Amino acid sequence: MVRGVTVIEFCNVSKVYKKEFTAVKDINLKIQDGEFLFIVGKSGAGKSTLIKLLLREINPSDGVITYSGQNITKIKKRNVAKYRRKMGFVFQDYRLLPKLTVYENVAFAMEMICCDSKTIRREVPLVLSMVGLSDKAKYYPDELSGGEQQRVAIARAVINKPEAIIADEPTGNLDAETSKEIIKILTEINKRGTTVIMATHDMNIVNSCQKRIVELKRGVIIRDIKTRGCIDESKEN
Amino acid sequence: MMGLASISSVTAVLIILGFVLIIVLNVNSLAFGAKETFDEVVVYLLDDTDEKQIEEMGKAFKKIDGVMEVSFQTKDYALEQLKKDLGDEAYILEDLKRNPLPNTYIIQLEDVSKSEYVEEKIQSFEGVEGIRYYDEAVDKLIKIADFIKKIGGWIILILLLISVFIISNTIKVTVLNRHKEIELMQYVGATNGYVRGPFMIEGIMLGFIGSLIAILIISFSYNYILNYLSDRYMMMMVGMSGYIVGIDMILKDLIIIFLTMGIGIGVLGSLISLKKFLSV
Questions:
Q1: Residues of B in contact with A83 (CB under 8 A)
Q2: Are the Cβ atoms of A81 and B180 closer than 8 angstroms?
Q3: Contacts of B181 in chain A (CB under 8 A)
Q4: If DSSP codes are grouped into helix, strand and coil, which group holds residue A12?
Q5: Model pTM score
Q6: I want to staple B7 with a disulfide (CB 3.0 to 4.6 A). Which of B91, B210, B255, B267 is the partner?
Q7: Per-block average pLDDT, block size 10, for chain B (280 residues)?
Q8: Which residue of A has its CA nearest to B187?
């Protein structure tokens, strides 16, 4: 992947449900490789619809979505799994498996698509260390705080070294302080070259971290602002 | 509980299938056996018929229009055949003071349409005690066989559908219970085969276990029924023994049919359930 190159493109994309409700309309959006992008808007603005379109959970009613030049709507159903391996997902509700430990939850993502146990044993501790949870590898999700659970989810999202991280309201269930920690981790991941797309309605987070903002209102992009650096980042610099 | 219901439904379908198959095979076999004698008229001779008379009767029978072949069976030969058929139970004949079986002529017909004419002609001979000819009985037997096949076929089809439905629901419960895990697997990029694999295996196992139980039940109960009938209705069973289908004759085929159908039901139930409930 090369920085500055468009990796994801929405071209005149619309999604209409049951011929009545327009979730998103005429979306034109280019996301570059290595970019950190916030998709913001109130509830019902269309943020989740964009994410679902990108995940190939749903298909657009109109328009084309490409990933690395490939039209993702043309991907056959049996190849969707392979496409999704390019991305890691972080959800608002963490979606950890309650009967697995932290280690096992992260390892789960590797087991699904590849990897012998030796590789898993090598990689999982590295990723847990990155998110600061090395000492909690044997804990179960219900023994962790919300922030810790989300860090496990991020670890699971990055373990397979995806090209992009898609985060849908990852700080939605967290307090302000914990949310900042999560953003910090995502920023770190982004610095290493991974594209990060984060949907959120928390404008405090967005404003404190001056990344590109795409704002949706009633399914339409009303604002697309490119900015640089988080306030904390610039202070460190 | 659901697993038990699934196994039971597969077992029930296959047991009924097994018994319908066995009944059809037996009726077919009996009908075939009866049909073999359909073109035969058996003529029983009076005990006091002397050798010369017997020989003349044989020559005369051959000349009757519609008769293809005539063969003679002595009463001693008939008794020996009966002893062979009885096998271990032949001891019951040891105390017989005289041979109760008659001398017989077995007349092979050229054309079964001439059976009535031939029968009429034979009746007119002196020395003929009786004639055996089972055309009406054979017709009825064949009709019964066809009827059983049709009814059996419908019953099996309905039960098959019920079994597939029950297994599909069992798998559905498992899918719903593991819905979060499945969804996660799909987001992470697990292939459909990887996601479906465990559920297909579950369906196959349910069908496999159900078919094994059915095989055991059918084998033991059919053997038991045959033994019971042999004890209670020995003479009748001896007469039919050449045409009764023993379990050893069909066990290998039953096993193949049952395993195929049991596993098939399991796979079909899984596929239906997975198609309906896996959607990410």
A1: 189
A2: no
A3: 97
A4: strand
A5: 0.66
A6: B210
A7: 80 85 80 67 87 89 88 88 79 79 87 77 86 71 78 82 82 81 84 83 88 92 85 63 75 88 85 68
A8: A84
